[in-house]
Amino acid sequence: MAVARRLHRLPTATAAAKRSAGTLASSLGGIGARPSTAALAAAATAAAGAGRASECQSLLLRMSRRRGASRREIVSSLLASCPTTPQPQVFDLLIRTYTQSRKPREAFEAFRLLLDHRVPVPASASNALLAALSRAEWPHLAAEAYRLVLSSDSEVNAYTLNIMVHNYCKTLEFDKVDAVISEMEKRCVFPDVVTHNVMVDARFRAGDVDAAMAVVDSMANKGLKPGIVTYNSVLKGLCKHRRLDKAKEVFRAMDQCGVAADVWSFNILIGGFCRVGEVEEAVKFYKEMQQRGVTPDMVSFSCLIGLFSRRGKMDRAAEYLSKMRGSGLVPDGVIYTMVIGGFCRAGSMSEALRIRDEMVGCGCLPDVVTYNTLLSGLCKQRKLLDAEELLNEMKERGVTPDLCTFTTLIHGYCREGNIEKALQLFDTLLHQRLRPDVVTYNSLIDGMCRKGDLTKANELWDDMHALEIFPNHVTYSILIDSHCEKGQVEDAFRFLDEMVDKGIVPNIMTYNSIIKGYCRSGNVRKGQQFLQKMRQDNILPDLITFNTLIYGYVKEEKMDEAFNVFNIMEKEMVQPDVVTYNMLINGFSEHGNVQEAGWIFKKMGERGIEPDRYTYMSMINGHVAAGNSKEAFQLHDEMIHRGFAPDDKF
């Protein structure tokens, strides 16, 4: 009975919990009441003192979210809640609460207030603040916080050093990096492997390969051993700057230093060799990777498949796609799109569409990039009906066409000469609130110029400027060439002058268009004089330049001048082609100068240029006109022997 009475006097667990809750509610202003900042501060300080960090941080979070509560009020309340000795734990949690809530500026303000009250801030709190400010891309505020840490004699450690080194390395301010290291060394905090890794990466980003390698070499003098992260940073930097021989040398040195290459090491090298198109080296590292027991991943296969797809070696791309599946990896949309793009560039649209079907069958739905790749391939092959069907499929699958989609189709229809359809697509583009770019306008202007409608082309030119879409060298080249095609050299020069005034440098195609314009307007001599301006502008004449001038002189029946251009061409080491020889042979033959035509024909053979059907017919017609039937029949037999069909008139 005594035991029963004593048990009866003990409070139940539920009653104790209710009283505890009631006490807490009372201290925070009562159940349902909005606690004051002071009450929350007192509770947070008590929780921190009892080691209940999670509860303390929850209360601090409530304080920071209170409407109208300033950082000064919060800090003052926390200081008032521990009048004797401030508790570092609660202020550590306060700074970290702000940084974890992605409020680095508020954290900085609280930090500064604490230092003003001479409250010692733990290194964990100041490091959290510095890291948050650096992540937020506020390097100057991070630098100010760092100066406050140093001036207040707050605790610092290697993490502090690495944060600030990283902060300045992001902006490539190496003098400030050196200053931080020097200051920290005075406080007996020395750079570690992480510090050097950050500096190596920054030096490579700055393009200073030698300085990056010097940082690596300095590690040994400081008793530090480069690890896999260091070596991978070096490999990445060397490959980025195309120092591939040095990258191979570093890779071999890893084994000697006892650092085993990982999948990322191999991927860096495979990717580096793929970017410069060195197929054999890329494949060699892929094979070595397997021999060492390092399993290739998505990146490994992506590099190789992309390389072979870009090079048009689609059998090899398909081979690595198959190996990828065999290793248990599922190709993603990016890899499938690379393969599709390769087949499109190779003109194998049936294979490209087969890969698209395989992609869908694997549950990987094509995105807008995949569809744009297919549309580009179809448009290049002038399969515009198929492209239209694919556009409809794209919409049915819920893939929204983008600017590239419409521009690709507009370009395709313009090349086909269907300007009306191109303009319809342009109107749809605008209706869908897509903003056309210079490529879109270039396609339309080129289409109008091909059609011979320069008035409409000029209207599009005006529309571009009204939308503040500025022409590029392609736009100017299209209009210059179109005016030159019609012999409108003055209009072409107006565009050329404007082009130069805007700082757009003309290229060889632009200058060739001007020369063509002179030739079309019957002023070949001025076209030849224009060569001097080309050379002054450091543009060297090419095969098309000389062929255009020769054609112009032949057309004007000035064979001596045409032959003179031919001699200049050879002196300037520009190799004539079959078109060059044909123009001269035909010109001399038509003017009855069969001897000169024969000399050109002989020279053509000596230079290893194979004559074509047009060459033979020009020579034959020249001999027939001169009454040289024997020579004409000899050339006729030679022509047939070479597999060329003679003219029926012969």
Automatic annotation (TrEMBL):
Keyword field contains Repeat: yes
PPR repeats: 157-191, 192-226, 227-261, 262-296, 297-331, 332-366, 367-401, 402-436, 437-471, 472-506, 507-541, 542-576, 577-611, 612-646
GO CC, any one term: cytoplasm
GO biological process terms held by the UniProt record: mRNA processing
Gene Ontology MF terms: mRNA binding
Name of the protein in its database record: Pentacotripeptide-repeat region of PRORP domain-containing protein
NCBIfam families linked: PPR
Organism encoding this protein: Setaria italica (Foxtail millet)
Family statement drawn from the similarity comment of this UniProt entry: Belongs to the PPR family. P subfamily.
Cross-referenced InterPro entries: PPR_rpt, TPR-like_helical_dom_sf
Keyword terms of this UniProt record: Repeat, Transit peptide
A family per Pfam: PPR_1
